[in-house]
Amino acid sequence: MQDSKQILVTGGAGFIGSHLCEELCNRGHDVLCADNFFTGTRHNIEHLMDRRNFELIRHDVTFPLYVEVDEIYNLACPASPVKYQFDPVQTTKTSVHGAINMLGLAKRIKAKILQASTSEVYGDPIVNPQPESYWGNVNPLGPRACYDEGKRCAETLFFDYYRQHQVRIKVARIFNTYGENMRSDDGRVISNFIVRALQNQPLEIYGDGSQTRSFCYIADLVDALVKLMETDDDVTGPINLGNPTELKIYDMAAKIIEMTGSKSDIVYQPLPQDDPMQRKPDISLARSVLGWEPTTTLEDGLNKTIEYFGNVYAASKQ
Length: 318
Ligand code: NAD
Ligand code: UDP
Prior knowledge:
The protein has helices spanning 15-26, 42-45, 81-84, 88-109, 145-165, 189-198, 218-229, 249-260, 284-290, 298-317, and strands spanning 6-10, 30-35, 54-58, 71-74, 112-118, 169-174, 177-178, 203-206, 212-214, 216-217, 239-241, 246-248, 266-269. By secondary structure, the protein is α/β, with parallel strands linked by helices. The strands form 4 sheets. It has a 7-stranded parallel sheet, with helices on both faces.
C-alpha cells in the first residue's frame, strides 16, 4: 500500500467531495472532511462515518482552520447556479476568503493544496474548445459573476501564494460533472432533467436548447483530481478536467426522456442572463501531463445516475 497521508477535503459533504472522500479513504488515507452543509448533506458521507480513517467537522472556510495535514483539496463552494446565486456575497466570500484561509493553512503547515476551479473562468467563451491558455469572456457585473470572478480571484491567489510563498499548488479547471450524490433540488441540468423525467413532469429547457455543455461522469473526475494531486511540484496547472463530448441541451433532454422511458414533454423557459452558449474542454494537457482521459461513456454514466435518482425517488415515497 502507498504511504498513508492526512488529507483535508473542504466541501467534502457535497457532490464531488463525498466521492473524493470515499476514494481517499479507500486508498488508506486519513480523511478530514470540513463542510458547513450549505449544499452538502450528512447523507452523502453517512457511509464513511464508521470508518476509522474518516472524520467530519462542521466548518465554514470563510473562517480560518487550524489543523495539521499533508494535503488539502479545496472544494468548498456551491456549484449550481441556483445555489451560488442564492447568497452571492457569501459565494464570493467562500471562494476568496476560503482560498486565503486554506492557502494560509497550506503555507503554515507546508501542505500541498489543490483548488477546485471551474470552466466558468472562461465565462461565455468565444473560443471552442477551451484550452487553458484562453483568458475567457466573463461579465464581471452579472448574476454569475459572484461565482466566476470569485473562482478567478481564487486562481490568482493560488498563483501568488505559489510565486510569493512557494506554496505547492494544483489548480483544476473542472467542467460540468454529474453522477450519484447530486441533490434532487440541486438545480443543475442533469439532476433537474432526470428528476423530472422520473416523475413524468415536463423537462424545462432554458432558451432554445441549442447551447452546449460537455458532461463528465464523477468517477472519471475523481480519478483525475487524485492524479493531479500526485504530480510533481512543478505541475501547478491550471489544467482542464472534463469530458470533451459536447452535446446540445436539447439533445440531453431528449436522451434522458428516452433512457428513462418517460412520458415527459419538453417546455421552454427564458435563457438566464449570461448563460454560456458553448462549453467543451480541450484536455490535451490532462492527457499528456496526467495520462488521463475520461473512460465512462455518457450512456453508462447517465444509467448509473438515473438508477441513483430512481432509488432516491422510491425512498421518498415510502
Ligand atoms: P456541491 O454544492 O455539491 O458541493 C459544495 C460543498 O461545499 C457542499 O458540501 C457545501 O455545503 C460546501 N460549502 C459551500 N460553502 C462552504 C463554506 N463556506 N464552507 C465550507 N463548506 C462550504 O458542489 P460540487 O458539484 O460538489 O462542487 C465542488 C467543487 O467543485 C466546487 O468548488 C465547485 O465550484 C467545483 N466545480 C464543480 C463542478 C461540477 O460540475 N460539479 C464544475 C466546476 C467546478
Ligand atoms: N438548463 C436547462 N434546464 C434546467 C437546468 C439547466 O435548460 O432545468 C440549462 C442551463 O440554462 C445551461 C445548461 O442547462 O444552459 C447547464 O446548466 P447547469 O445549471 O447544469 O450548469 P452551468 O450553466 O453552470 O454549466
